[in-house]
Write a structure and sequence with these properties.
Lipoxygenase-1, six-stranded antiparallel sheet
Length: about 200
């Protein structure tokens, strides 16, 4: 059963999954709010879908906070091959996950301590134009949803630092961050990410 994460909450991935957790999927889903167009004094107007391009990215950090690699729409696979982005959805159309990032936990290099997942509006619309935005962690082996985090939608921000997977002892923990930010790519979000690496 999935755990609904609140902002700031931390859980152990191993304790929320069956033994042998080795591959997780971070899924991002969203819908663009419909907008009214046309009409004469509000009559005969119709609702049409916007095209909003949200992007999911993963930034890999070492224990000192140095970036070791990035996975995003311009680099769909980490150099070590442990993390793969399945591709860029530019509209949010469709049900379920619109973008996915797959992590082979056992292949993540030992020097990597943090995997931080962010979402940003590449087209620049704010989150008050987006609805039903969620990210979730799934055990790829069993398809069981381990955790779900509702991105606290409405606001003038254009990005959000979603969550962090980090090593703690011999296992992986998940930290729901939910920090609102502004930026069209992950590089612009680094000042908002770094305080959460402690």
């Amino acid at each position: 059963m999935a755990i609904s994460l609140a902002k700031g909450q931390k859980i152990s991935l191993e304790k929320s999954a069956d033994a042998g957790l080795s591959r997780v999927i971070m899924g991002l889903g969203w819908d663009a709010k419909k907008v009214k167009t046309g009409g004469f004094f509000g009559m005969f107007s119709k609702e049409v879908s916007q095209e909003i391009d949200l992007d999911a990215s993963c930034v890999m950090f070492d224990a000192a906070g140095g970036i070791t690699d990035t996975i995003w729409f311009r680099q769909l696979q980490s150099k070590c091959g442990s993390i793969v982005h399945t591709g860029d959805n530019r509209t949010g159309d469709g049900d379920g996950d619109d973008e996915q990032i797959i992590v082979e936990l056992g292949r993540v290099p030992a020097q990597v301590k943090h995997l931080v997942f962010v979402v940003n509006s590449f087209t620049g619309q704010s989150f008050d134009q987006i609805e039903n935005a969620t990210c979730r962690l799934v055990d790829a082996r069993s398809n069981a949803e381990l955790a779900r985090y509702a991105l606290s939608g409405s606001g003038t921000h254009t990005a959000q630092v979603m969550l962090r997977l980090y090593r703690d002892g011999g296992g992986w923990q998940v930290h729901a961050i939910g920090e609102k930010a502004s930026g069209r790519t992950f590089e612009q979000l680094l000042p908002a990410i770094r305080p959460h690496l402690a």
